[in-house]
Amino acid sequence: MDRLDVSDGFDVHDYRHGLKLLKQDRGTMTLENRQGFACPACGDAFERLFVSENRTNTFGNPGSPFCLVRTDDQLLVLTH
C-alpha cells in the first residue's frame, strides 16, 4: 500500500490514478481513495481526503476516525 507523500507538499496529480474527485470549489476538494493509498499520518488506508488551501474551514461530524496533516500550503483531512 503506497503512502501519500506530503514531505514536499501534496499534489493531487501525483495520485490522480487512484483518487476520484467528488467535489471541488474555490480552495477545497474532496476525493475518494479508490487505490487503497495509506494515510500519511497513521499509515492506515483512508476512505476520503479533504484538501483545503483556505485559512479556515468548518466541518460537520465525520462519523468516523480522522487524521489531520498540514503542509506548508494545505490542510488535509483524511477519514477512515
Secondary-structure element order, as H and E?
EEEEE
- Quote the beta fraction: 35-45%
- Poorly predicted runs are none
Average of pLDDT: 93
- Trace the largest sheet across and list its strands: 1-2-3-5-4
SS element count, helices: 0
As for the number of domains, it is 1
Structural class: mainly beta
Major sheet summary line: 5 strands, antiparallel
The helix fraction, in percent, is under 10%
Number of strands: 5
Shape: globular
Amino- and carboxy-terminal Cα gap: 15 Å
For the CA atoms, what is the radius of gyration? 12 Å
This entry's quaternary arrangement is: single chain
Organism: Haloarcula pellucida
Protein name: Flagella cluster protein
Pfam families: DUF7385
Characterise the protein shown here.
With 80 residues, this protein is an all-beta fold. Helix content is 0%, strand content 35%. It has one domain. It contains no helices and five strands. Strands 1-2-3-5-4 form a five-stranded antiparallel beta sheet, with no helix packed on it. A hairpin with a 4-residue loop joins strand 4 and strand 5. The model has no long low-confidence stretch (mean pLDDT 93).
Throw out a few tags for this protein.
5 strands; mainly beta; 5-stranded antiparallel beta sheet; single chain; 0% helix; DUF7385; Flagella cluster protein; 35% strand; 80 residues
